[in-house]
Design brief:
Layout lengths: L1 H11 L3 H48 L4 H15 L14 E8 L10 E5 L2 H16 L16 E9 L2 E9 L5 E6 L2 E6 L3 H5 L3 H9 L4 H4 L7 E4 L2
Parallel strand pairs: 2-7
Antiparallel strand pairs: 1-2, 1-3, 3-4, 4-5, 5-6
Helix pairs in contact: 4-6
Length: 233
């Protein structure tokens, strides 16, 4: 009976061949499982590695200095903005010519003839423009009735140009109580040439005479020989 019991126990034990087969199967499954995990994680790793260069490239591109083309484009834009055409009193230094017409409102005949002139001397043009701007920028605070002796009704109408572009128009009442009216950008500013206004533009009459090519005395009153027409070339 004892021998039978030992035999039965031996029949339930695995043979060496079965053991080796089992071990090989376990090792093979482990190897396959390991390969599978690597293969499955490989795309994630590849995605991470591929996104990293993209991020680095984007950061490098954003931090890289501007190319010569973009830099020159920015400079051109800045130059265009800086060279934008001004108007009104801001364009004094752009004025290249002025056309002036003398107008007389006297009823009785005078000896002064018609006077119309276009001045192309930029220095003279800008000096007159600057004086007119100084006058309207310091308007007189005088109020009430103002008596104006020796008012011969002489005034000058003019237009300042930058080439063919109109910069401003003015009316200068030269006799009696002098007045100045300057129109630019659709706005008109006017003032009497009294007090601080006269002090701000002391050379207005002189500069007007220089532009017209006549004696200063002829600006405010009719003087024989002060008439004439033409253009300064």
């Amino acid at each position: 009976m004892e021998l039978m019991r030992h035999g039965t126990r031996q029949s339930t034990m695995m043979s060496p061949r079965h053991v080796r087969g089992t071990v090989l199967a376990v090792l093979l499954c482990s190897a396959l499982a390991g390969c599978g995990s690597v293969a499955a994680s490989a795309p994630a790793g590849a995605g991470a590695s591929s996104s990293a260069p993209a991020t680095s490239s984007a950061q490098a591109a954003s931090s890289a200095p501007a190319s010569p083309a973009s830099a020159s484009s920015g400079a051109a834009s800045s130059g265009a903005a800086a060279g934008a055409a001004a108007s009104g009193c801001a364009s004094v230094n752009q004025a290249t010519s002025v056309t002036v017409h003398r107008v007389m409102h006297l009823v009785e005949p005078t000896r002064a003839g018609a006077l119309s002139k276009t001045q192309h001397n930029a220095t003279l043009v800008r000096a007159l423009f600057s004086e007119l701007c100084a006058a309207v920028s310091h308007p007189s605070a005088k109020k009430g009735i103002i008596r104006c002796p020796a008012d011969f009704g002489i005034s000058y109408l003019g237009t300042f140009y930058d080439g063919s572009r109109t910069l401003a128009k003015f009316i200068y009442g030269a006799s009696g109580c002098q007045t100045v009216s300057l129109t630019a950008d659709g706005k008109t500013r006017s003032t009497f040439m009294l007090g601080g206004t006269s002090t701000a533009a002391p050379k207005l009459r002189t500069d007007m005479a220089a532009v017209l090519g006549v004696p200063t005395l002829a600006i405010a009153q009719p003087v024989a020989g002060s008439g004439g027409t033409g253009a300064n070339k």
